[in-house]
Amino acid sequence: MPFKSETDSEVLVQLVEYIMQSNGLEVLEALQVALQQVIGAYAIVILDREHPDTLICARKSSPLVIGLGADGDYHIASDALPIAAYTSQAVYLDDNDIAILRYGQPLQVVNIQNEAQHPKIKQIDRTLGDISKGDYPFFMLKEIFEQPDCLRDCMRGRVLSDDDTISLSAVADYRKQLTEASRILIVACGTSWHAGLIGKQLIERFCRIPVEVEYASEFRYRDPVILPGDVVIAISQSGETADTLAAAELARSKGALVFGICNAVGSSISRQTHTGIYIHVGPEIGVASTKAFTGQVTVLSMLALCLAHERKTISEADYHELVGELRRIPAKMETALQTNELIRQLAPVFTYARNCLYLGRGYNYPVALEGALKLKEISYIHAEGYPAAEMKHGPIALIDSEMPVFVIATRETLLDKLRSNIQEVKARGGRITALTTVGDNSIRRYADHVIELPDTHECFQPLIASVPLQLLAYHIAVSKGLDVDYPRNLAKSVTVE
Ligand code: M6R
């Protein structure tokens, strides 16, 4: 049969039609034959013009959710968010399942071998149906400002204020495998990968378990070694990122315990993992991830401290002190948000930059990567994040007065060394904007601009320091007149490779 299109969905429709015509089959039967032949991921809905009262949906490795309306109506989408305004009940199709939807009639599900399936009906989170920007001009700004409350929600029932302890049901349920893990592998993409880099530092420092962080897209194709006793953590805001889902499935097929850290409840990754922790920061609409990032870092902080306590790799005193400090983070984040006006005034200075550099060390190195990613995504200014000490191995050649350099120089173990790195940049005419801890004036003389942040333990600095960098990217993009929530070429969930 000659190909009439290069678009895979059009090719599939042609294939179904060809099978119908050449074998005298109805559309459902023809679809079952077709789907046994095709390779790859799909989520499709078919309407046969001869049967306009019937929709047929099928999925494999791509998300598809069917909302069940109260009046016999159906709603189909790739996640629960867009249908939540119409119904509170949903069915998530499994791979190779086909659903037949007829208005006013019960949902029928079969698989591609035509065996009847009985999927469970799930409740959709009611808050999903109630999404608006409120008084904010963009979802991204709203989501940045929501973060203190989001982190309170994320910690609710998990960080216990009576005795400054952490209780995680996922750790209780899989205590042995988690506490005896010989290695932890973190797989994720984009911002979630940056959260994973912070998770690595937290888990290695407090639990003394070796951690590797991998791009899910690389992990899935390099035949990774998975050893008995390995735990794989898949981090994803949407829970639908194709590469992260495939990496989690691969790890599971090789015998690892797979642990999900997701935001979207009921998402594919959360259903494919053995256990996990939802970040519970509410729906994130802005394409540039903000509150999901700090939610992921909060979950990783709770996980690291909880596991360390179980493994007795942290002293009781340090454990309680750090849990207490984690509880105080939302209030400190509120203070960090007060830098908004200063950053708004500063932003136009950077509008014409063609390249920017973000520097940090230790826990703040992933914050530098994340700050650069935010700027790239929504302002279309090229930006790179670097561990500050790596500057002298190449990137320092780029420094001149045209190059804004953002340095995360909050109080931390390596601050003295970072100060030397800042001097190196200054000596080459770099224009420095420094994030510093309030009360530390030692950076001021090298910096063109200083943004002061509240003090906290260095392991929680990312939760504070990422806030002004999110605001900076936001205000620069707004100054350039760009659509912050829907930047060009980007999708909120990357459900294809
Ligand atoms: O939904 P996920 O967390 O799996 O998404 C991963 C990345 O696609 C995502 O973080 C992306 O980098 C964001 N646009 C970052 O702002």
Strand content: 15-25%
Strands of the widest sheet, in order across it, are: 12-11-13-14-15
**Which stretches are low in confidence, meaning pLDDT under 50 for 5 or more residues running?**
none
Percentage of helical residues?
A: 25-40%
Shape: globular
From the 3D coordinates, which CATH architecture of the largest domain would you assign?
Answer: 3-Layer(aba) Sandwich
Characterization of the model:
By secondary structure, this protein is an alpha/beta fold. It folds into three domains: 8-129, Aminohydrolase, N-terminal nucleophile (Ntn) domain (Glutamine Phosphoribosylpyrophosphate, subunit 1, domain 1); 137-314, Glucose-6-phosphate isomerase like protein, domain 1 (Rossmann fold), CATH 3.40.50; 338-479, Glucose-6-phosphate isomerase like protein, domain 1 (Rossmann fold). 38% of the residues lie in helices and 20% in strands. It contains 15 helices and 20 strands. The strands form five sheets. Strands 12-11-13-14-15 form a five-stranded parallel β-sheet, sandwiched between helices. Strands 17-16-18-19-20 form a five-stranded parallel β-sheet, with helices on both faces. The protein is globular, with a radius of gyration of 25 Å.
